[in-house]
Amino acid sequence: MLTDDWFTVERIDAVTFAISEYGHWEKVHSFLLIGEKKAVLIDTGLGIDDITRVTDQLTTLPIYVITTHVHTDHIGGHGSFEHIYVHRADQRWLTKGIDGLSIEQVRKGISKEITKPVPPSFDPETYEPFTGEPTGLLEDGDMIDLGNRKLHIIHTPGHSPGHISIFDETNGYLFTGDTLYDETPVYAFYPSTDPGALIESWEKIAALKGVTKVFGSHNSVGLDPEILMEAKNAAIFLREHDLARFGTGIHEFNGFSVKF
Ligand SMILES: [Zn+2]
Ligand SMILES: [Zn+2]
């Protein structure tokens, strides 16, 4: 398998790879999905190092970047790609920067708890998050055809207004971004998040048929689809107890947690 100083590449199958940044506390994953005619890269990581060093070794096909959502840890390498797509509701953040997030906060977050050597090109004092125009916009229900592999775009707002999940119908892989992952709480406590929308998004992805594996963007790579039923039950519980509101704190469930 490919080895790299900064990125950890994990082969999910012959045409699907997780590209992880375990040297940073957020343990963020980007995912490369290779089709017949083109490849899709779901997010581009932190931008601490150059992700194309890895993607260039994995495919020679044109790469289309799909953004799960516009947060600094998911768009870091966007500037290295020609084709980038984002949901309409996060577009403005991609072009102009994230509302209410100062450059000082961004630089503090990016330089915190780094446990691997970073390249000389990375300087937290001058780090700038990507901003730029997308090639195109995504909507709920869009389908991206990679030749022999169809990806469905599912709008899953809550963690951000334009957050999307991606369902690879051919393999049953569901990429949930920051809508659902294990180990650390899913964040829905900043002003730009929406706890009510987040739990509706859990119900929406739990209704999908044929999911074989769930891939969140942080922590463990590849979760049992059972987590979707847990998320659906969590949504019902939180709604019934009027807990899907800001300030209600951390709620723990079987296999994941959320912070409102
Ligand atoms: Zn996020
Ligand atoms: Zn994230």
Q: What are the SSEs and their pairings?
A:
Elements: E1 8-13, E2 16-21, E3 28-34, E4 39-42, H1 52-58, E5 63-66, H2 72-75, E6 83-87, H3 91-96, H4 103-111, E7 136-138, E8 143-145, E9 150-155, E10 164-168, E11 173-177, E12 186-187, H5 195-206, E13 213-216, H6 226-240, E14 250-253, E15 256-259
Helix pairs in contact: 5-6
The site of one zinc ion (ZN) has 4 residues, from loops.
Organism: Jeotgalibacillus alimentarius
Pfam family, one: Lactamase_B
Protein name: Lactamase
Explain this structure to me?
The chain is an alpha/beta fold and 260 residues long. It has one domain (8-182, 209-223): Ribonuclease Z/Hydroxyacylglutathione hydrolase-like (Metallo-beta-lactamase, Chain A, 4-Layer Sandwich), CATH 3.60.15.10. It is 20% helix and 26% strand. The protein has six helices and 15 strands. The chain has helices spanning 52-58, 72-75, 91-96, 103-111, 195-206, 226-240, and strands at 8-13, 16-21, 28-34, 39-42, 63-66, 83-87, 136-138, 143-145, 150-155, 164-168, 173-177, 186-187, 213-216, 250-253, 256-259. The protein has a seven-stranded mixed β-sheet, with no helix packed on it. A five-stranded mixed β-sheet has the order 8-9-10-11-13, with no helix packed on it. Strands 12-15-14 form a three-stranded mixed β-sheet. Strand 3 (28-34) and strand 4 form a beta hairpin. Helix 5 (195-206) runs antiparallel to helix 6 (226-240). The N and C termini lie far apart (39 Å). The mean pLDDT is 96. The chain binds zinc ion (2 copies). One zinc ion binds at residues 28, 71, 73-74, 178, 217-218.
